[in-house]
Design brief:
By secondary structure, the protein is of the alpha+beta class. 32% of the residues lie in helices and 25% in strands. The protein contains 18 helices and 35 strands. The C terminus is likely disordered.
Length: 750
């Protein structure tokens, strides 16, 4: 009989912790939150001081029953979810459930809360030896956040359905991120490029070696050449001047290493290097945190907690990495005293920075046990942490001013003297092997003008946001927190409010329409400053300086006023959202307007409801496939309907033949050979079934892949994804269910 029960969030974490604690402990996983507000109603009592009504999440009943059964056999219960707001709320709801389940049924169990920053044996045993109380202030902060989000989503969504179409929704934080993306797009669209020219020249000094320099000043003022005529006037005048070296400026520059990663900087760096989305980076980091199978060691937690805004590092970790630096590099690469980094303003500093649990586990020693994605992220975290405790990089920088008449050219060069921390970590753009050398010159020596080159340029609009730059922008504006950055962009992409093209975000027409509606009716709520202030209010609740119901009450008072004026603004809203076209209705002759539906934009008659004629928008007509209809030999085309895309005969309505679109995988049932196709249930849930239904009833809920299971040789596997291990393949044979890492070509690169 287990002496104690430990409850964590994920099976991966449970396996790792169970290895450390052994047979004296039973470790169970709650699989995330176990209670939440109901889906089908508001779940917040507006008349009773915003009292939330929590229910057990669908599908979690069986898990809770198993936890209750294990708790009945245990002497003590340790709640060990992550120690952020969400984790604290999970611990609170688990404790409440277990107390209710055991109330009046014998001796009451002792329930403890334990906290740890890394999943190592030392950290786990220290946490169990020093349990704490559940942090009610953290629970209140999470509860306030959940109630605020529910009020916004539940009360605004029906209004969006009426104005645009059923299925659209708003998010308290995501909609502000959408606004930031849309406003950047508006800047790009309004941008008018301005022409400018640059002039570069080659000079030769006494050393007879070329010096490449750029025109910087004319008559002592910064140069601005607006057109070719001005550029030609200068290039024609340059040969008439006598040039000399007017200034030689030599300096020794020192560049300090960056601090270890926090959530936002890790997401930014992974996006820049590997083009990972914020969500993918966090999924991979989560698997490294919760535990990876390392040879005979079994599951090992390789990094500390990955949702943090603190650059603080434990003393023992610093001592270990300083020893590694001295042995791996040189004694001089470790500074006399450890590097200390200032925490940024507003950071909660609850956790350490993201670092390896042991810097002695070098990336090369771990490579054989990690997937490609895991290795990339681990190497990034490890090298950044090691570099953070190394000496600065030192280089010589030289600037030359070359003057002749009114013209001053400038040349810059640098030579690396000591690599320092660059031995361990280089950011994008570091060029340690490309020293920019300048020949030796003396101030006052003559410089002979050589080849002159003029080039035309145009000013560029601001760049669209990438995963990296959007996270940086959100962080700079105080929007969101480490635990939410990844979900913000993924939610906007899932809702099709934005698209990603060449790693950059573009607002969709639907996203713009939703934002128009929100800003006309709720500009007070969906602005950057107000949202940032709300984040600070949530921090104050966690700190204990604000009461959560008061914060929600103040928000709702402002929100309620906007809700009351929605009907008054309906005419303005519809005018903004209604886009007239020059297309005439072919049934009644009235003008057609652009409307939104489940499958995108379409043309609808402005005479609705008297005339209900609709037609596809030009450019969004059905797609040809080259396939022939087996009933009438007509062309089969791809159309969109209530249940997604499908193949239909182009001779409709004379021929009404339709069928599902194949996904490129044959049915694995012996003797069938039919195509597996994407289908939807009446409720809209996607599944994949055999096209020969009802003769063949083979079906799976997740996307099939034509790959043979290495265990049972079944010809089909399915794509799956878990919080613990990220994306993977699972055998579609229900009697096997063998799992393997997802092949690289199938991994979502963001």
């Amino acid at each position: 009989m287990a002496k104690a029960l430990v409850i964590v969030e994920s099976p991966a974490k449970a396996r790792t912790i169970n290895k450390f604690l052994g047979k004296d402990f039973d470790v169970k996983a709650s699989m995330g939150h176990v209670k939440d507000l109901p889906k089908r109603d508001l779940g917040v009592d507006l008349e009773n001081n915003f009292e939330p009504r929590y229910i057990i999440i669908r599908g979690k009943g069986k898990i809770l029953q198993e936890i209750k059964k294990a708790a009945g056999k245990a002497d003590a219960i340790y709640l060990a979810p992550d120690f952020d707001r969400e984790g604290e709320a999970i611990a609170y709801h688990l404790a409440a459930y277990l107390r209710e389940a055991t109330d009046g049924k014998g001796k009451e169990k002792t329930i403890y809360r334990i906290l740890f920053n890394e999943i190592t044996e030392k950290a786990i045993r220290e946490a169990i030896a020093s349990p704490v109380e559940i942090d009610s202030q953290k629970v209140d902060a999470q509860q306030a956040r959940r109630v605020l989000d529910r009020l916004v989503g539940y009360l605004i969504s029906p209004l969006l359905w009426k104005a645009i179409y059923r299925g659209t929704s708003a998010g308290r934080v995501q909609s502000v991120a959408l606004r930031i993306i849309c406003e950047r797009e508006a800047e790009i669209e309004k941008f008018v490029p301005e022409e400018f020219w640059s002039i570069d020249a080659e000079f030769t000094g006494d050393a007879k070696k070329p010096i490449h320099a750029s025109l910087a000043e004319v008559n002592g003022e910064k140069i601005k050449i607006e057109n070719e005529e001005q550029a030609l006037a200068i290039t024609d005048d340059l040969p008439k001047q006598t040039f000399s070296i007017s200034k030689v400026d030599k300096k020794v520059r020192r560049r300090r290493p960056a601090p270890p990663f926090i959530t936002s900087t890790l997401q930014q760096e992974a996006a820049k290097r590997f083009h990972y989305s914020a969500r993918k980076t966090m999924q991979v980091a989560q698997s490294l945190y919760e535990g990876v199978e390392i040879g005979k060691e079994g599951p090992v937690g390789l990094i500390t907690y990955m949702r943090t805004d603190s650059v603080r590092v434990a003393d023992e970790a610093i001592d270990e990495v300083r020893g590694l630096i001295q042995s791996r590099y040189t004694k001089d690469d470790a500074p006399a005293k450890p590097n200390v980094y200032k925490k940024k303003k507003g950071s909660q500093d609850a956790h350490e920075a993201i670092r390896p649990t042991s810097s002695m586990r070098t990336p090369e020693s771990m490579k054989g046990d990690l997937s490609k994605d895991q290795f990339r992220v681990y190497e990034l975290i490890w090298s950044r942490f090691v570099a953070s405790q190394m000496v600065p990089a030192v280089y010589d920088q030289t600037a030359l001013d070359i003057t002749g008449g009114p013209y001053m050219f400038r040349a810059n060069g640098s030579v690396m003297r000591e690599l320092g921390f660059l031995k361990a970590f280089q950011e994008i753009g570091d060029e340690k092997s490309k020293d920019r050398l300048l020949p030796p010159v003396e101030q006052g020596e003559d410089a002979a003008l050589g080849e002159v080159q003029k080039d035309q340029h145009f000013t560029q609009p601001p760049a669209r946001f990438t995963d990296a730059s959007l996270v940086k922008e959100l962080e700079a504006n105080g929007i969101g927190r480490p635990s939410t950055y990844a979900s913000i962009t993924s939610t906007l992409l899932d809702r099709k409010y934005i698209t990603r093209d060449k790693q950059r975000f573009h607002p969709s027409d639907l996203g713009r329409a939703v934002l128009k509606f929100l800003l006309i009716n709720f500009e007070n709520i969906f602005n950057v400053q107000f949202t940032a202030e709300m984040e600070l209010d949530l921090d104050k609740i966690e700190e204990g300086s604000d009461e959560w119901r008061e914060v929600v009450g103040e928000f709702y008072g402002r929100f309620e006023k906007d809700l009351e004026t929605v009907d008054e603004k309906s005419e303005e809203v519809m005018k903004e959202l209604k886009e007239e076209t020059d297309v005439e209705c072919d049934k009644c002759g009235k003008g057609m307007i652009l409307r939104w539906g489940r499958n995108g934009r379409f043309l609808a008659c402005s005479g609705y409801p008297d005339c209900k004629n609709t037609k596809p928008l030009e450019g969004e007509e059905p797609e040809p496939t080259g396939e022939k209809c087996e009933k009438c030999e007509g062309d089969m085309i791809i159309k969109s309907g209530r249940f997604g895309r499908f193949l239909a005969c182009s001779n409709y309505p004379e021929c009404k033949n339709t069928k599902s679109i194949p996904v490129g995988v044959k049915c694995p049932k012996e003797g069938c050979g039919g195509d597996l196709t994407e289908k939807r249930t009446r409720s809209g849930k996607i599944f994949y079934g055999c096209a020969n239904y009802p003769k063949c009833n083979f079906a799976v809920w997740t996307k099939p892949v034509a790959e043979v299971c290495p265990a049972c040789k079944f010809p089909v596997m399915v794509e799956k994804q878990s919080k613990a291990r990220g994306p993977f393949l699972e055998c579609a044979n229900t009697e096997c269910r063998h799992k393997k890492d997802l092949a690289e070509e199938l991994v979502d690169a963001g």
